[in-house]
Amino acid sequence: MNARDSYDEDLVVALLIAARENSAQLLADGVLLSAVPGFRCPGREFEVVGAARPGIHRYHEVQLPELQQVTWAVLPGYTCEFAEPAQYSVEDARQSFLRFLTPANLNRGPAPFLRVWWKNTVTKAGTEGPDGILAVPATLRREIELLEGAPGSFVEYQNFRGERYRVEWDADQGSLTVQDSADGGEPRGVGTADLLRFTEASLR
Fold it and tell me: Please, which pLDDT band fits residue 182 given cuts at 50, 70 and 90?
């Protein structure tokens, strides 16, 4: 474990015990970033024990490379932060662990897993390629707000459950539409404020 300006002995002990008890699941072959539910520590809201395999974390990479190869990093986390292992490429797992989960901050709140694709015909901004990017919820909110009055634009996002939604601007209705990619139903119109509340709830 690693802690920066947030060390809590009770939390660290509880997490390491839970990690050892669940080591077979956390250290499964080929899993880059994993989580086991059911973790509890009095006074804390964490829900899972997370683990990053060697090459995803970089704790001993420079000074002790031999130790790096046999060390898994563990951290307390929240259910919404971890997608199914198949959703992570090596680069995704590294970025998620280092940039979004901030494992050294034991006082942090949830950082929901979020993959986003977008194209905006007005701002000319967007993602490239089929894989989208990992992002923070503020990015999703901003890009949805920028859809208004931008025909031909879209935002798609995927949460930790693998649910995927597409949002577009409907010029005829003068409103945003949202579609659940899984159910194949027709896009439905929704007000911006309601849509933003929906997207926030869908990430938890």
Answer: low
